[in-house]
Amino acid sequence: MLPPRRSVGNLNSCCKNRMMITRIGRSLRSGITNESQQMLIDMTAPTHSQATWQALPLSIAPSIASHSLSTPESLQIEIDQTTHRLELLNFFHIPASSNILEIGCGQGTCTVVLGHVIGEDGHVDAIDPAPLDYGAPYTLGQAQEHITKGPLRGSVKFWQTQLEDFLKETGDKKWDYAVFVHCLWYLDAPETLARMLKALKGRVNRICIAEYAMKASEPAAIPHVLAALTRATLEAQRPDSEANIRCLLSPIDIKNIVGDSGWKVERETEIVPHEGLQDGGWEVGDVKSKSFLDDIEQYVADSKMKVVLRSGREAVVRAVEGLDGKKVRTMDVWAATLVETD
User: Fold this and answer.
1) Integer Cα distance of 198 and 340 in angstroms
2) What is the CA radius of gyration of the chain?
3) Distance, CA of 278 to CA of 78 (rounded, Å)
4) Taking burial as the number of CB atoms within 10 A of a residue's CB, which of 108, 228, 273, 313 is the most buried?
């Protein structure tokens, strides 16, 4: 199982990746700095004042990761995942004391980073519809309870609910930011994202989005792009899919949906994840596995589609072989902040 990616709309859960993690990531490379490990390509300039915002050093990742429930073997994974989310938050420019609605929170990996950012005077409402008894070695409920009993207990509240239901239940409550971090590919259809964005109009001042960019600045990330395409092709044949990748939205797709839903991109960027982020390797490993071939036979009836999927898998295998033993990297990440159109 891959890193818990997301949970929104009909998403099963972004906790899915994380709760099933048994793999151990590489040690966080020493000397990580924003300059050396974070490659940001600002495409537009900020248009609003954020005088209270301060960049966070990536060196605080181990401290923030300690708020999450983990085993000694999986702690480094949490540190690597936290480092990536710090990179994203440094682009989003969310200031202290903000009120945040996090969508697809899962186990709370991004939640603890948000909780650190907003401080004692801010608040995070983190929602996820996944069952609380899901996951291993710790369930979703255990992971969330651990966070709410820790130092962030006054700043974070978890809700087991769908976005649209939550918005109805909270009346006219408003938030400064809504945050979607690596959860869009779990959606069942593009229309689900459009519906969610429309529901957020008038309820949040800004939306922060991060999802994979379908681009590999690092050659070692090419297998990840190929694996994502191949996995998404298989899951498109399965209406009841609960896989990590169900709706392979590219940045272009997302921006088109954004524009049609009453929002516009305020700022956007592309980030090359640091080498420690393991998501690319997990996705590639799943597509290379024999179980992927078994799934093709089980879920795909059309013989031509079977050939397409087997060829896609072969492309992933060949791309990995072309790395000559080098580690598979995670593809680039697209991030953006959105504001309502006038």
Assistant:
1) 10
2) 19
3) 10
4) 108
Averaged over successive runs of 10 residues, the pLDDT of the chain (342 residues) comes to 40 39 34 41 41 85 94 92 97 97 94 96 94 81 94 95 96 97 94 97 98 98 99 94 91 98 98 97 98 97 98 99 98 99 86
215: left (phi over 0), alpha (psi -120 to 50) or beta: beta
Name the percent of the chain in helix, strand, coil, to the closest 5: 40, 15, 45
pLDDT at 79: 97
Burial class (CB in 10 A: 0-12, 13-18, 19+), 148: middle
CA 128, 130, 135, 140 torsion: positive or negative? Answer: positive
Query: What domains lie within the chain, and their CATH numbers?
Result: 15-219+246-277+329-340 (3.40.50.150)
- Which residues, other chains included, contact 78 with Cβ-Cβ below 8 Å and sequence gap of 6+? 65, 68, 70, 109
Q: So what's the pLDDT on residue 133?
A: 87
Give the CB-side neighbour count of residue 182, counting CA atoms within 13 A. 31
Structure tokens at 206: 């800004």
Instruction: State both tokens at 251.
Output: 């940045």
Per the structure block, which two tokens stand in for 188? 């069942």
CB-neighbour burial class of residue 36 (10 A; exposed 0-12, middle 13-18, buried 19+) = exposed
Instruction: Give the pLDDT confidence score for residue 5 in this predicted structure.
Output: 42
How many Å apart are CA 245 and CA 226, to the nearest integer?
13
Res 263: pLDDT: 99
Residue type, 238: R
Helices (H), the chain: 15-19, 34-37, 61-65, 75-92, 109-118, 140-148, 163-169, 190-200, 222-235, 251-260, 279-288, 290-299, 303-321
Q: Do 148 and 26 touch, CB atoms closer than 8 A?
A: no
